[in-house]
Design a protein that fits this description.
Its EC number is 2.3.1.-. The protein has 149 residues and is an alpha+beta fold. It has helices spanning 9-26, 31-34, 89-103, 118-123; strands spanning 2-5, 45-50, 56-64, 72-80, 108-114, 127-128, 134-136, 139-147. The protein has one domain (2-147): 3-Layer(aba) Sandwich (Aminopeptidase). Strands 1, 2, 3, 4, 5, 6, 7 and 8 form an 8-stranded mixed sheet that branches.
Amino acid sequence: MRAVRVVDEAQLRACLSIRRKVFIEEQRVPEALEIDEFDQLGRAVHVLLYDDSGAPVATARFRPYHPGDSDTAKVQRVAVLAHLRGRGLGRRVMQAVEELVREAGFREIVLDAQLHAERFYEKLGYRRASDDVFDDAGIPHVRMRKSLM
């Protein structure tokens, strides 16, 4: 397994391909909600995880939580191909994201977790930011936080 920071259009297309399969095709999220202004090089930091054969298998991205925010990063679009779930790939891609978030100088991560994935993030040290459950693209979510200090 090898995780890389996305630096070219081919890698970005691989990230978007994984997200298309997971979010648009599998979870039925409308494309107009899934693909956004942060899906360009330089607008967010994208991470791509390759398996041992060199095939892209998981992805995530992060950006400042608010424009100009240098303390809190928002992690988004964490996706692992369906047939490979349960093998630790989500943990691996999150470890890579957290390493890059730390290198960028952020002190905290915020993410909006699909409710069914809350336990996954808890195992990685994330905690609910509130008791509120909210709808995002027709899927229940909870906001979670993790301090990197």
